[in-house]
């Protein structure tokens, strides 16, 4: 992502591995690689004449620029495209390991953004959950279903610290105990069958995590702990984004520094398409719970950046810089990618460091939030279509992707990890194995109300009141509603816009009525300045709620 571009700085960095918590230690496995010449037939499992159009195009266009008018085939010491493609499995690497997706901690929400006065509906894979804060400030998480008539509890309300179903007023607290049923006769006992399923939650380093297993208690050794975020002076900018594609595709995208200069060209003053170049990767550790390694630009001959993936959905990209005074500074890009159902994911992004950028002192935090939204919108078309193709083709990624050693190593590592653990997931798309979803994706309907009813009757959902319609392609829905700061900023700018509009109107009216030239001038200047304020507020609101559209796509 373009947000990862600071890790591609021209600054010369020492190659240093960051310390991680002891309970996340990784055991190195012995790597046995069979070196062989990879032919097209070996690579794709068929003769070139049987390849589809895409593969035949690869065969006839395997020429890449390496200098002034020199092709790969003509340059000594350069690999051909076939040799540049990542080789097949290392021996024993793809063997299945014990894994159960339920026995993991999943990132639910940023603590600071959990509403104080309302329940919050969330999902992990196909499990619907409701998260809320009790009167004493304790976080509770239940199955999002009232057992009376199956109404969603996330559509309910909080009454005296209890969660109330708004259909018939049943109330719940604690570990899912039903404590009130208004329709029961006086003196009647509430049956245990009215109680709802509860899930264990923990708050750690500003994030709410949920343990999905109903049979085993939460394993504290699996609860992530991030060393850099506990360092003195470490500050971060954290955002939440709901995205319309699978979490595995999201993780792929976040592991892919090669796309940043192209897809995010000039987005944050650092990504430039002319900087697209070969990268170098070194996988240093692999386990049943993920992998770990270094990477950098091939031309720099160093690998100063450290990437780490941990099950089930945690990705870190870290680096260290020693300044001219010999002081060491730590930088982290943390990506918590929760699977939110088929074709859906929720991402918590946290970028932080111990040396604050001067830009962070000049620009308000909401500016960085909207810039992050812009970055995800730049990739949204690619990733949504990738999601559709994977479901349509029903093939593992090794049959669909052309992964290069100089750009796609982390993507291949991730898909190979899914080969090992996919049998313990609801569905997966691995490097050489797949398991398709057993049930079709659930399409959420518009909320209740006149605007939603009219929108639902339109060809495209969200035709009326689009800013507030539950459309995953809508920035307001994907980010603003999940961010207290951006929500308050939008409200504040809307209020100031209304004030400026009113003052401008009144000033213009008095300018017409008064006879003195000085008063007319003063009032007209005042009206002009207020109209400028209206424009500025409208621009700020649009920055927070309007999707980015590439220039060649605009009308």
From TrEMBL:
<feature type="domain" description="Rieske">
    <location>
        <begin position="105"/>
        <end position="210"/>
    </location>
</feature>
<dbReference type="InterPro" id="IPR050584">
    <property type="entry name" value="Cholesterol_7-desaturase"/>
</dbReference>
<dbReference type="GO" id="GO:0010277">
    <property type="term" value="F:chlorophyllide a oxygenase activity"/>
</dbReference>
<dbReference type="GO" id="GO:0051537">
    <property type="term" value="F:2 iron, 2 sulfur cluster binding"/>
</dbReference>
<keyword id="KW-1133">Transmembrane helix</keyword>
<feature type="transmembrane region" description="Helical">
    <location>
        <begin position="522"/>
        <end position="544"/>
    </location>
</feature>
<keyword id="KW-0809">Transit peptide</keyword>
<keyword id="KW-0812">Transmembrane</keyword>
<keyword id="KW-0411">Iron-sulfur</keyword>
<protein>
    <recommendedName>
        <fullName>Rieske domain-containing protein</fullName>
    </recommendedName>
</protein>
<keyword id="KW-0472">Membrane</keyword>
<dbReference type="GO" id="GO:0046872">
    <property type="term" value="F:metal ion binding"/>
</dbReference>
<keyword id="KW-0150">Chloroplast</keyword>
<dbReference type="GO" id="GO:0045036">
    <property type="term" value="P:protein targeting to chloroplast"/>
</dbReference>
<dbReference type="InterPro" id="IPR017941">
    <property type="entry name" value="Rieske_2Fe-2S"/>
</dbReference>
<keyword id="KW-0001">2Fe-2S</keyword>
<keyword id="KW-0934">Plastid</keyword>
<keyword id="KW-0479">Metal-binding</keyword>
<keyword id="KW-0408">Iron</keyword>
<dbReference type="Pfam" id="PF08417">
    <property type="entry name" value="PaO"/>
</dbReference>
<feature type="transmembrane region" description="Helical">
    <location>
        <begin position="499"/>
        <end position="516"/>
    </location>
</feature>
<dbReference type="InterPro" id="IPR036922">
    <property type="entry name" value="Rieske_2Fe-2S_sf"/>
</dbReference>
<dbReference type="Pfam" id="PF00355">
    <property type="entry name" value="Rieske"/>
</dbReference>
<dbReference type="GO" id="GO:0009507">
    <property type="term" value="C:chloroplast"/>
</dbReference>
<dbReference type="InterPro" id="IPR013626">
    <property type="entry name" value="PaO"/>
</dbReference>
């Amino acid at each position: 992502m373009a947000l990862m571009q600071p890790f591609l700085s021209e600054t010369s960095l020492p190659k240093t591995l960051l310390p991680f918590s002891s309970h996340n230690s990784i055991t190195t496995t012995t790597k046995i690689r069979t070196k062989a010449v990879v032919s097209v037939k070996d690579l794709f499992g068929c003769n070139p004449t049987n390849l589809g159009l895409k593969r035949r195009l690869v065969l006839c266009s395997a020429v890449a620029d390496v200098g002034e008018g020199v092709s790969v085939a003509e340059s000594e010491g350069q690999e051909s495209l076939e040799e540049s493609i990542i080789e097949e499995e290392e021996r024993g690497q793809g063997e299945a390991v014990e894994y159960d997706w339920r026995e993991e901690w999943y990132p639910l929400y940023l603590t600071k953004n959990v509403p104080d006065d309302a329940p919050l509906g969330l999902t992990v894979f196909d499990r619907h959950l409701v998260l809320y804060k009790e009167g004493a400030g304790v976080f509770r998480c239940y199955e999002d279903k009232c057992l009376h008539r199956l109404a969603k509890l996330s559509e309910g309300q909080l009454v005296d610290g209890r969660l109330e179903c708004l259909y018939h007023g049943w109330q719940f607290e604690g570990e899912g105990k039903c404590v009130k049923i208004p329709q029961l006769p006086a003196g009647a006992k509430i049956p245990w069958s009215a109680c709802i399923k509860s899930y264990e939650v923990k708050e750690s380093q500003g994030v709410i995590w949920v343990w999905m297993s109903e049979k085993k208690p939460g394993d504290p050794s699996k609860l992530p702990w991030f060393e850099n975020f506990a360092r003195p002076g470490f500050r971060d900018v954290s955002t939440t984004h709901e995205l319309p594609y699978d979490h595995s595709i999201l993780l792929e995208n976040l592991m892919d520094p090669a796309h940043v200069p192209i897809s995010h060209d000039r987005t944050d003053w650092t990504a430039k398409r002319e900087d697209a170049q070969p990268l170098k990767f070194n996988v240093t550790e692999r386990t049943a719970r993920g992998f770990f390694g270094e990477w950098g630009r091939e031309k720099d001959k160093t690998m100063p950046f450290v990437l780490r993936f941990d099950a089930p959905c945690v990705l870190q990209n870290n680096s260290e810089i020693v300044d001219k005074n010999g002081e060491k500074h730590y930088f982290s890009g943390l990506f918590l990618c929760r699977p939110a159902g088929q074709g859906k994911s929720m991402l918590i992004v946290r970028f932080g460091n111990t040396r604050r950028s001067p830009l962070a002192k000049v620009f308000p935090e909401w500016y960085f939030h909207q810039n992050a939204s812009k970055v995800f919108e730049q990739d949204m078309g690619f990733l949504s279509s990738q999601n559709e193709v994977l479901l349509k083709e029903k093939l593992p990624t090794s049959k669909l992707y052309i992964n290069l050693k100089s750009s796609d190593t982390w993507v291949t590592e991730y898909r190979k990890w899914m080969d090992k653990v996919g049998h313990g997931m609801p569905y997966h798309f691995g490097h050489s194995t797949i398991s398709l979803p057993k049930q079709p994706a659930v399409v959420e309907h518009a909320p209740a109300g006149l605007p939603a009813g009219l929108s639902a009757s339109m060809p495209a959902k969200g035709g009326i009141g689009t800013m507030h319609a539950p459309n995953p392609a809508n920035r307001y829905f994907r980010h603003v509603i999940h961010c207290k700061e951006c929500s308050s900023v939008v409200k504040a700018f809307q209020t100031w816009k209304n004030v400026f509009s009113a003052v401008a109107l009144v000033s213009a009216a008095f300018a017409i009525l008064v006879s003195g030239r000085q008063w007319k001038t003063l009032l007209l200047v005042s009206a002009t300045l207020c109209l400028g304020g209206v424009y500025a507020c409208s621009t700020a609101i649009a920055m927070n709620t309007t999707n980015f559209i590439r220039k060649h796509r605009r009308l």
